[in-house]
Amino acid sequence: MHQRWSALLFLHWPVDPALIAPRLPTGLTVDTFAGQAYLGIVPFHMQRVRPVGLPPVPWLSWFHELNLRTYVLDSNGKPGVWFFSLDCNQPIAVELARRAFHLPYQHARMRSSLKNGRLLYQSTRRGESITATFEYALPNQTRTATEGSLEAFLVERYRLFSTDRSGNLHSGLVHHAPYQIAPADCSQWSTEALRLNNFPQPTSPPTSTLVAAPVDVRIYQLRKHFPI
Question: What is the pLDDT of residues 7-49, one digit of tens each?
């Protein structure tokens, strides 16, 4: 598939790896930076989503997504992303992603508005009453993450993992140019995604807050994971 990701906000908190490890499937281990695991909340816009060779569809190819993720290694040490949840306001996309990518997508009511370069982004998961609200400035001057830095560890990930209903591990590759990032001017954020996934609520602000310029992305076919 082809798609564009824009209005990307990355909020990350360090956590004890022991909090993450029991919730990973067989075949994956926690990836750490300086001994810490990380949980990330990432709201953004999905745009121009379509299969290769087909044009985007106005009412289907543009929507919002808010995910909670962590970072993992497979049995050969290949790094990737593990998603605990992905909230989305496009019902068809939710159902397709659940079936085609075995990802834990959730239906949600979501909206955003842009004023004077600042984005107000809100999400309410179906069946819940609390609205997750984020307010942040879109980036002007950006740069790539320095190799070996915490920023690179958190954002430069090009493989996702998931499990099907039978517990089989799958992986898929993602390709895009390196993120162009900047420190986030984020005046409001929510940890509702952590609560919904039964993680302790942090008592301090995120350790890492980043925004990124839009990227054009190619998503490759998900395959049953046989490490080699």
Answer: 999 999 999 999 999 999 999 999 999 999 999 999 999 999 8
Nearest 5°: phi and psi at 55? -80, 160
**Number of Cβ atoms within 10 Å of the Cβ of 108:** 25
Give, as one character, the DSSP assignment of residue 33.
B
C-alpha closest to that of 40 among 210, 224, 168, 221: 210
CA atoms in the 13 A half-sphere facing the CB of 88: 21
Report pLDDT digits (tens) over 95-132: 989 998 999 999 999 999 999 999 999 999 999 999 99
Task: Print the domain residue range for 160.
Answer: 2-224
Query: Rounded to two decimals, what is the model's pTM?
Result: 0.95
The enclosing domain of 196 has a CATH number of 2.40.400.10
Number of structural domains, the chain?
1
Binning the chain into helix, strand and coil, the percentages to the nearest 5 are 15, 50, 40
